[in-house]
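# step 3/5: fold
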Amino acid sequence: MPELTIAAGLARGLIEFAAAKGANAAGLARAVGIDPADLADQDHRLRFDTYVALMRGAKAATADPALALHYGETDDLAQISVVGLLAYASETMGDALIQLNRYGRLVIEFDGPKERFKVVPTADGMWVVDTRENPNAFPELTESTFARMICGPRRVGVAKLAKAVHVTHAAPAHAAEYERIFQAPVTFAAEWNAMLIDPIVASHRVALQPRYVFGILSERAEALSRELERSKSTRGRVESLLLPMLHRGESSIAKVAAAMGISRQTLFRRLKAEGVTFEKVLDELRRQMAVNYLTGAKVSVNETAYLVGFSEPAAFSRACKRWTGMSPRALREAMAA
């Protein structure tokens, strides 16, 4: 099963929040193995279990057992991910929930159905149910998610979102903070993680950005979703491991398999199940990178040959002619024209 991941922006936001409460930011990151460079791009992916360790380390460093609640209460999802920006650009609160469901995995992946939230209408209103599996293994995610979903809409004029909140974990020592933040009665050790809201809230207008901006943000979210989905395939993982190996001339199936912690035979079988071979993945990756380098015109033909893993320019030239029907120099001239 592919490992779960989170957006680096979520971890960066937590580190900054904890630092504002007195924690050592560099120490927090170092303790869980996060390189500061990994946080530069908010869409970079980090392991889910790294985030779990970070959250618990931050709670200890700040001596705040309710840190997850406080993080969700004060953090703005738009500062973390394109998903937050997309929610603010949605026409209504109902539309924002649709976008959150559609692209929520860009912020944090989870075990469970493709869509994390489902809506259950009742006579009392509309229950928004978190379908995450085994939520009590990391109740801090329930805390921060519900706090973010309830407090975030206050920025667009929804003073009171939840009429009631149910959570499956037992009441913690900081239970009083739940009702202060949620401004609604909370039931602990419930059968589901859910919020009861008035259906009329779904029609509350948001639209903080023009529809044109919504379209641009949707395109970005779609591209990130495709990239994330691709990374879950064996081919995607092989490509990501090959990229830093190409210029070192170490792009062998043995090295990639070792980096993945599996045997060559297992990697061969997994790629075969996806309809490709290692040689085909390597060849197509080299072609793609070569075209990118030659189109950019920032490196020479010989440098391009080296960067994509050819020790001899002549061998690269032959490969380029096979890929495109042109020599590297002819391809560069054609792209420039």
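# step 4/5: annotate
Strands lie at 5-7, 45-47, 117-122, 125-130, 162-166, 186-187, 193-197.
# step 5/5: archive (pending)
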